[in-house]
Amino acid sequence: MTAAVPKVLALSGGVGGAKLSLGLQQVLPAGALHVLVNTADDFEHMGLHISPDIDTVLYTLSGRANRSQGWGLEGETWNTLQALESLGGETWFRLGDRDLATHLWRSNQLAQGADLSALTSALAAQLGLSTSVHPMSADPVRTLVHTEEGELPFQHYFVRRQCEPRVSGFTFHGLDNARPNPDVLALLASGQVSHIVVCPSNPYVSVDPILQLPGMWQMLRDHAAPVVLVSPIVAGLAIKGPAAKMMAELQVPVTALGVARHYAQRYPGLVDHFLIDESDATLADDINALGLVTHCCATVMKTLEDKTQLAQACLRLEAL
Amino acid sequence: MTAAVPKVLALSGGVGGAKLSLGLQQVLPAGALHVLVNTADDFEHMGLHISPDIDTVLYTLSGRANRSQGWGLEGETWNTLQALESLGGETWFRLGDRDLATHLWRSNQLAQGADLSALTSALAAQLGLSTSVHPMSADPVRTLVHTEEGELPFQHYFVRRQCEPRVSGFTFHGLDNARPNPDVLALLASGQVSHIVVCPSNPYVSVDPILQLPGMWQMLRDHAAPVVLVSPIVAGLAIKGPAAKMMAELQVPVTALGVARHYAQRYPGLVDHFLIDESDATLADDINALGLVTHCCATVMKTLEDKTQLAQACLRLEAL
Fold it and tell me: What is the ipTM of this complex?
């Protein structure tokens, strides 16, 4: 008998989470990484079920993501979308020709009664991944963004309105009745998980929906593995996406300290270690005072080496 | 006041009907042609509503049809389909990237409660057509092909099984409760229709569903305008599609005479004039004996000139 390989569970939204997940995948043995992905920004568009964060994670981990635009596939073509535009169809959500195949296939399978979790595993297998990618829940959860223009479905806020409307809060419709992915519950109960990494994803719209699934954050808090959070805010800026703009509009300090406070207040005792960027080192004492053990390192992930180094920094940390 | 321009109503399936419709469109004043199109081979595929005959007519009349393959769009690309294939999705029905936009747009509009007739008009307008294209009914009618392998939905027989299974009959599911397109009923009642042309489409699976809509063939029979039928069989061969193979399997003589008998027996008194190919001139006496006035001309439509000449031959004929 050989000892079971320790598993790592990463919580991820889209781009930022996918980047660190790629770093983790690089440094871990094949099959050791499990990524639990936000599905609260899933939506229905042109009759298709679209899971943007799952696709970003799948495409990134398989090396197929378009790196310059931050979504979709490398070398994509846009012939369907152009034809749709000439028909007066909706084109604000950019459906690439190859990406569309993912949506068509998944939507058709879902309509036939398949489970989002099984479909995600099938997509991961088809892409040749050894990493397990798990939707946070098979039950529909939909983020509504409270804005000065009213409540907007997340993709309408994020893509159609380019995050322009001022934000005052969020509702995760369906969250109270959503069951956490049972495969992940089984993984957590297996005693094999060595690290839980909360990726540098948007705290409000990517990580909160995962943690607020019924019982989820308490289960992670009570788990023996250390919970390691990586700050999505560096030097007052979000690397990608609207996190910084949202924090400002919610009147939260746009700093790693503001992030730390969000987690400490909303999920007391959850986060053991907090990785902040070296450029934010002066915040460390104030964050430590919240009960999070703070570590400074390079958190900006431009190259694959950046990603693997940040992954290694996460995995070096131990339970308190 | 100017006199109303006479209208021409053409009954059409896919390729053959679309070709003669194009000829009619060429020789008639703008707006004079109305094409009533079979929808009994419409189907649901990958969650999309697909109307193959309507699309063939729309693409042909707008000069966008792929002429060599006989379906789909000229200059089409296949990136979605290739990606779908790599996902193990169904690829037997060849969805081109641009064609897919039509299906996505129409499916989404139908799901929102739009009417197939209005959507077809919108597509025709978007393509710049002055011809009116009418689905035979907004109610779903679905052809089941009785074969030695059991009952096959039409596209499964036609595309997936390449018309290979031996045919013994057809059922048009939903036909008894399908209402003929009210725009076409109004057109017929308007007194403006000068000619009714039954295009050289498959008698069994393209024209029969239209004529067997409740009350339809009787209304056409009783109309003052001459009903002109063009033979889909020339010298014992079907120009396109499985008509000849079906006739042989149904033990009907594979000749223009076999076609004439089908119409004379099933729809007595409907057809006034029957245009057969010059190469079938020896059949004229036997067909005349059935009560159809037979005319010989060149019916094979390869060039645009072939199409316009055949259209002119149809329009020269007068009520008996």
Answer: 0.88
